Amino acid sequence: MGIPELPVPNGLVLRPFRGVRFAVEDPAKVTSPPYDLISDADVDALLKLHPNNVVRLILPCPDPGNSSPTATTTDSGATGAPPAAVPLEARYADARDTLRAWLEAGILVPDEAPALYVYEQSGPDVVQRGLIGDVGLADPGQHIILPHEDVMPGPVADRLALMSTTKANLEPIFLLYEGADRAASRLVDEVATKRHPLVTAHTEDGLTHRLWAITDETEIAAINADLRDRQALIADGHHRYATYRVLQRQERATRQPPRPDHPKRDNRAAEHAEEGRPSPVGGLLAPWDYGLALLVDSTAYPPDLKAIHRVIPGLPPAEATAKARGSWRVRDYDDLAEGLAELENAQEPAFLLAGGNGVHLLTDPDPVQLAHAMPPDHSDRWNALNTSILTEFILPKVWGMRDDEETVRIVHHDAEAAVRLAARTGGTAVILKPLAIDDVLAVAAGGERVPRKSTSFGPKPRTGLVLRTFAID
């Protein structure tokens, strides 16, 4: 069976949906960080908080007697490839059955009416507000939803198995757009300051999470009229967005024509264009033509951009620095704190190497060798990024290895955790400074993508406050 033509969004679209929410006394206890920031120890801690924690859905256990997730993780929250011995579909059948059981038992309860949800995260020196809804799926070539990172096949296959088996989006991706204090942004702030929240949750990281529902059709129409001509940057969730699009093609290739997207509306293209919804070029719209997303106005709520570090198991720091001396200036330090301070002040490109013993700062690369290593088909801005230089120059040319999931481990934010992992694996931690937001935006707007796992935008949405299932959506 051929793949039908896919719907084409006529702009940035955020559709209301019937959210599924936990009916528990303390909603914070059933939430979790995003799946790729959860370690084995985190899973145990989350399940101790509440036996119905959402981690049982997003990282289900292959054995009910074993609380560890099925993906291998580090104590920093870096997620690796799942064990090959457990087929993906079998692993996520447990998530599907758990989701059904919780719905039948009333642990999870769907909201009565479709809504867009205002979501606020607040804490010491942190306030972020945005809208959670069904975002219309667009090809990157349409320049509506802009990816800025490459994705790897392993995580996409993993999330595809979860979504296709559960028929659900269990955690939102994180999108940023420039709202310029127009209708959608003003309404978000009005709702958050004047209306009573559906959910208030205080999580152990010190943040308070609040959720409101917007069900008024006039307000929803005003939001989409404002959003229609805008672009959104994928801040977090590149693999999940790629999965949304693979799932959309998969479902449209194997199913009968889907149901209309709203029982009270027909599917004339003119009405879709007027309301800011995707045009049903490929037939009637279906749940898999959308994906769960948090959309934040970055002009009102600038994001926090952190670095993602690397660990190269089996490459001792002494060997790594010895190979680097032919093309980089290397300075040695006695402790990590001193090295981190020097990295902070160093001019880019700069990298801090550490592991079992010794801390080493790489700066001032040989310009001839660097220029020869960087790909001529990329922009100067892309070629100047530290993650690009690591991927194109240091890893392949200096150390003779590729940047792939088998060779390079990923550690979010925590330099000390990266060094501990390097020491345990007889390897080298590569500590990076965060990219500049302007560089990321410029690269994405130019149609390029930074190397995988180059950015970590925050604060990330908490998983478990509101879920989306295809059957209820």
Which descriptors would you attach to this protein?
20% strand, 9-stranded mixed sheet, alpha+beta, 473 residues, 6-stranded antiparallel sheet
Structural commentary:
The chain has 473 residues and is α+β, with helices and mostly antiparallel strands. 33% of the residues lie in helices and 20% in strands. It contains 15 helices and 21 strands. The strands form 5 sheets. Strands 1, 4, 5, 6, 8, 9, 10, 11 and 12 form a 9-stranded mixed sheet that branches. Strands 15-17-16-19-14-18 form a 6-stranded antiparallel sheet, with helices on both faces. It has a two-stranded antiparallel ribbon with strand order 2-3. The protein is globular.
- Euclidean distance between termini CA atoms: 26 Å
The coarse overall form would be: globular
- Give the count of helical stretches: 15
Radius of gyration: 23 Å
- The percentage helix is 25-40%
Broad structural category: alpha+beta
Low-confidence spans: pLDDT under 50, at least 5 residues?
63-84, 262-276, 279-283
Mean pLDDT over all positions:
88
Quantity of strands, as a count: 21
Summarize the structure.
This protein has helices spanning 40-49, 55-58, 88-105, 153-166, 183-194, 217-227, 238-254, 269-275, 317-324, 336-345, 367-373, 380-384, 386-398, 415-424, 437-445, and strands spanning 14-15, 20-22, 108-110, 116-123, 126-136, 145-146, 168-169, 173-177, 199-202, 208-214, 232-236, 290-297, 304-306, 308-312, 329-333, 351-354, 359-363, 409-412, 428-431, 456-458, 468-469. It has 473 residues and is α+β, with helices and mostly antiparallel strands.
